[in-house]
């Protein structure tokens, strides 16, 4: 795990957040399996918190081609936007993987938008719902929207983000029917939302382990 | 009699949560922990344990591969695979190798039921 400075979370808070995301993604894999009719491999190798500028830099460095994203806005104690991001070249591959790959190209192109939105909806909802439930809070999610562009367009959507915005950034491996597609999930939130998340993570850690957390990060 | 539980999970929080659930049911049991499959196999060669609780989704070998490796070292060890990923293929493979599948997040009730059944198996084996 490459925890680039500044460190927004303690080691145990990051571990807890990673565990929540992994549970969310694992549940999404179960839901996608029902939809796809074949075993779905989904894993989250790393979770890190980055500044918005750093997240744009990382994504631009790793992916030089155009990107496609499924975007949803969430509101509640923690508010922000969640994005599932793939290189545009992998987007049809994802649709083929989901539909079984025996459809003609024109059908696949026609289905692309819908399949992406549905996949994104399942994955993002599963992650956010798991985080919300396990932190004992509720989040309201908007409908999924498919966007095309690059890292800076995705991370600079209206309303214009604030300088202090933080991006929870994770790599995700997605494989079904011998097709292997790597993508990203990004959750963009402002500093008050990050402070709320940190506080909720501490409460969660205490509930799960029975051990009170040293809340030095409170109100950060 | 008190037994020793092996807990394998790459998340420290998940290991701490499993420990809390274990202590609620069997406060006098011992436990050993590993953060991945390699560590668990190395530990299994040196340290005695009676029952194992294995996370499915870990870097390196997954919980099912680890279960097979542990069973080849210590056949008939009661094992549980823990995951939020309850795809039929995974649950079926767990069953096939004789492991119990437990849903993540792990709750005390489900863990207790697994441990009680494991104790019955171990006591029966000794009889």
Plain-language structure description:
The complex is a heterodimer of chains A (220) and B (127). By secondary structure, chain A is an alpha+beta fold. Chain A is 46% helix and 26% strand. In chain A, strands 1, 2, 3, 4, 5, 6, 7 and 8 form an eight-stranded antiparallel β-sheet that branches. In chain A, a hairpin with a 2-residue loop joins β7 and β8 (179-189). The two termini of chain A are 22 Å apart. The mean pLDDT of chain B is 94. In chain B, α3 (63-73) links the parallel β3 (51-55) and β4. Chain B has 127 residues and is an alpha/beta fold. At the A-B interface, α1, β1 and α6 of A face α1 and α4 of B.
Keywords:
heterodimer; A: 220 residues; alpha+beta; Chemotaxis protein chec; eight-stranded antiparallel β-sheet; 46% helix; 26% strand; globular; disordered N terminus; B: 127 residues; alpha/beta; Rossmann fold; five-stranded parallel β-sheet; 5 helices
Summarize the structure.
The complex is a heterodimer of chains A (220) and B (127). With 220 residues, chain A is α+β, with helices and mostly antiparallel strands.
Task: Give the SSE layout.
The complex is a heterodimer of chains A (about 220) and B (about 130).
Chain A: H1 11-36, E1 40-43, E2 47-51, H2 52-62, E3 67-76, E4 80-87, H3 88-99, H4 105-134, E5 139-141, E6 145-149, H5 151-154, E7 166-176, E8 179-189, H6 191-209
Antiparallel strand pairs in A: 1-7, 2-7, 3-4, 3-5, 3-6, 4-8, 7-8
Helix pairs in contact in A: 1-4, 1-6, 3-4
Chain B: E1 4-8, H1 12-25, E2 30-34, H2 37-46, E3 51-55, H3 63-73, E4 79-83, H4 88-96, E5 100-103, H5 108-126
Parallel strand pairs in B: 1-2, 1-3, 3-4, 4-5
Helix pairs in contact in B: 1-5, 2-3
Low-confidence runs of at least 5 consecutive residues of chain B: none
Over all CA atoms, what is the radius of gyration of chain A?
17 Å
Structural class of chain B: alpha/beta
CATH superfamily of chain A: CheC-like
What can be said about the biggest beta sheet of chain A?
A: 8 strands, antiparallel
Largest interface: A-B, 25 and 21 residues
- Helical content class of chain B: 40-55%
Which assembly state applies to the chains in this document?
heterodimer
Name the helix and strand elements of chain A from N-terminus to C-terminus, one letter apiece.
Answer: HEEHEEHHEEHEEH
- What's the name of the CATH homologous superfamily of chain B? Response regulator
